[in-house]
Every structure is written in C-alpha cells, then in structure tokens.
Amino acid sequence: MIAKPLLAAVTAVATLALGATTAIAPTAHAQEIRHIASNACWSISPNVVDAPYRGRITTTQWLPTERGHLTVYIEHTASIFGYRTRPQLAWHNLTSGARGHVGTTAYSNPLGEGASVSNFWTGPGKVHLTMLTTSNNRVVTVRSTVCSTTVRVY
Q1: Are 126 and 150 in contact (CB under 8 A)?
Q2: Which end of the chain is more exposed for a tag (fewer CB within 10 A), N or C?
Q3: Prior bond to 46 cis, omega within 30?
Q4: CATH of domain 28-153
C-alpha cells in the first residue's frame, strides 16, 4: 500500500527534475564540431623511468556562438611520478593569413589529464595548428616532437 504512493512521489520528482533540466539546457549551442589530430607528439618523460610523453590535439567549436573561435584540448599520457608540461600552440589561418600563438601549463599525473586553451579567435577558414610541448621536472627539461593538424573553423 505504501509502495504505490512512494512510487508516484519518486516518479513526480524525477519528472520535475527532468523537466527542470530540459528547461534550463542551453539552446545557443546548436552544434558541436570536434576534430581529433591524426598524429601525436612524443618524447621521453623528464623522469626518464616513467611512461613516455604523448600529446594529441583535439579541437571543439560550438556553433553558432563560437563562430571564428576555437577551443583546443591537449590530452597527454599519465605519469607515475608527475611533471609539468607547457604546450605551445601556433596557429595559422590559411584562408585569411592571420597568425597567432597560445600556450598553457598543465601537470602530467597518474590520471593522465590534459590542458585546454579555450575559445581563442582564429577567424573562419582552414586553420593549421602546430604544437610543441616542453616537459620538465626539477632537474630535466625535454622537448617533444612537433605535432600538427589542419581544421576547418566555421
């Protein structure tokens, strides 16, 4: 007897929660465009006895609100002992000729988290991205190989 009212209450709360979530969901982000680079940047870990560094470029663009803008996520491998990474990203808009660079600092740790450079202006067109990462601990600094990709920015 108690089960029916309890089930009704749970259903009502779930319906309200779902309705509230749907009502406040952003509508401006109509379409996500994501590109994953086809090659990776490699180097030994500055800890030497550790997993090697491997970075990869992934880009995301939300349309229509981020026209001409790009968000880049730089994923990298996990490290047993941890170290700092400084990815530097150079971009060249092949359509307009515009150029620029952005950078960030991240920490490679056992979870293998990455870094992101959010919503920077490149302008619409084909954009060539080139990344070079410097990784270091307190003693050793190592540069990775260069990785690059070309993406279409809308």
Answers
A1: yes
A2: N
A3: no
A4: 2.60.40
